[in-house]
Each structure stands twice: as structure tokens, then as C-alpha cells.
Design a protein that fits this description.
Helices cover about 45% and strands about 10% of the residues. It is built from 9 helices and 6 strands; from the N terminus they run H-H-E-H-E-E-E-H-E-H-H-E-H-H-H. The strands form 2 sheets. Strands 2-1-5-6 form a 4-stranded parallel beta sheet, sandwiched between helices. Helix 3 packs across helix 7, helix 3 packs across helix 9 and helix 7 crosses helix 9. The longest helix is centred in the C-terminal third of the chain and has 26 residues. Bound molecules: zinc ion (ZN). The site of zinc ion has 7 residues, from helix 3.
Length: about 270
Amino acid sequence: MKYPFFFISLFLLTACINQKQDKVLYTELTPQEFRERIAQASVAYLPLGTLEWHGEHLPLGSDGLQSYYFFQEVAREAGGIVMPMLFLGPDRIKQVGDKELYGMDFCTLPPDHRKYYETQQLAGSAYRIEDSLFVSILDATLKQLSRAGFRIVVGHGHGPSTGMFQAHAQEWEDKYGLKLINCWGSEWDSEGKGIMVDHAAMNETSLMMAFRPELVKMQNLPADSTKWPVGVGGKDPRKYAGAKLGKQIIRMNKERMIRLIKEVLAETI
Ligand SMILES: [Zn+2]
């Protein structure tokens, strides 16, 4: 009778340890858990999101959600802590009449193009701020992360936000003693198999199908394949997207990012 008890205790102890290792969200850590995780790997992950139209089939928070879940998977293996998502970000802007239009609102394609749609204020978008304000928010965030003891910050998500994070990287690295990384630059980006490399098309739809399948409503897209879905940029999600592809993209990019983070960690120690 003693042996089953021993094995059950061992199983419960292992489960507890695993659960502790799995805690990667900044908002959920106690100070002691924070000390332990940052001592193990001083990496912060910053999901750069939006509340933005992502086709009729994807949730408005798709950008933040994809980077949030991807970062949690990376953090569980490479170590580090995942920040809450940002939902404000930069984007192109155009004044049309009395309306300000952003990003995917305006279609830059000629009317005879297959993917053309009427320029319009797309439902649900509420994220755009001035470039200079976004830079100030990132600057303040990075200052706080440096002060808290992080040495590496991985920022990724909404394209223009990631672009700005990358464009100012050197300046912030010098200012705050950090190393900044994003997830672009994989050999699979051009094949649509990087992390968030289109707009609500094959790539982002597949990632959402892998992370949160219940939030993806493919039935909301036109059934007629000759009709292009409004505000979708990239390969047709109706034809090419799938959870299996999403999982493959996550696996490949996760391995790449873990390798990269471990290399940078080894250099910064
Ligand atoms: Zn997106």
C-alpha cells in the first residue's frame, strides 16, 4: 500500500512543479515567482496588438491574440515573462471628407483589381494613435522593463507597431541597456509562414485557427470564391488557411525564436 501512495505523491509533486514552470504571464506572478523567472531568463515578451478589422471571419483583437499565445509557448520553453497586450498602435492615415480612415480602411488597388473593395470605415477598428505617441509609449514601457531587471525584450504583432519597434531598436538598446528582438526575418516569411506576415489571410487565419479555433468564423466570408473578402490582404484564407498549417507555422517559428533567444541570452550573460 505504501508504494501507490509514494507514486501518487510523486505525481502530484511533479504536476505542481510543472504548473509553476508554466506560469509565464506577468500579471499573474507573485514577486517571488517573478524573481525566480527573471533570474532564470531576463526576457520580456511584448505582444503588439490592435483592435482592428481582420475580415468578417476573425476577431478584432487578432493581432494581440496571436502574439500573446505565441509568446506564451516560447516563454514556456525559452523562459521569460509575457506582458499584457497593447491595443494602440500606429498605421497609415487619410482624411476623407469628415472621416479619418486608417490602415485597411482604404483600398489602394485599382477598381479592376480582383482584390479591390470600396474605401470605407471598417467596423470595429479602434486602435490608431500618432507615431510619436506610440514611440513614447514604447519608450516608457522599455524604461520600466529595464528598471525591473529585463535584458531582452521580444516585441511583435501588428505590422506597423512591429516596424516602429524595430526602427527604434538601436536607440532603445543604447538608452536602456536592452537587446530588442522581433519575430520577422525567418526564411519562411515570404512563403506566408512567418508569424503574422499577412492581413487576415492564409497566415493570420491559420494562426488563429491553431490558437483559438472557436473564434474563427469562416462561414462569415463570401461562399463565392470569385468574390474577394473585404479588407483581407494575402493568400485567400478560404482556400489555404487551416489549423494544421497554423500549428506547423507555430512549431517552426517557435523553434527558431527559442534558438535565437538562447543565443542572445548566452551573449548577454
Ligand atoms: Zn493582423
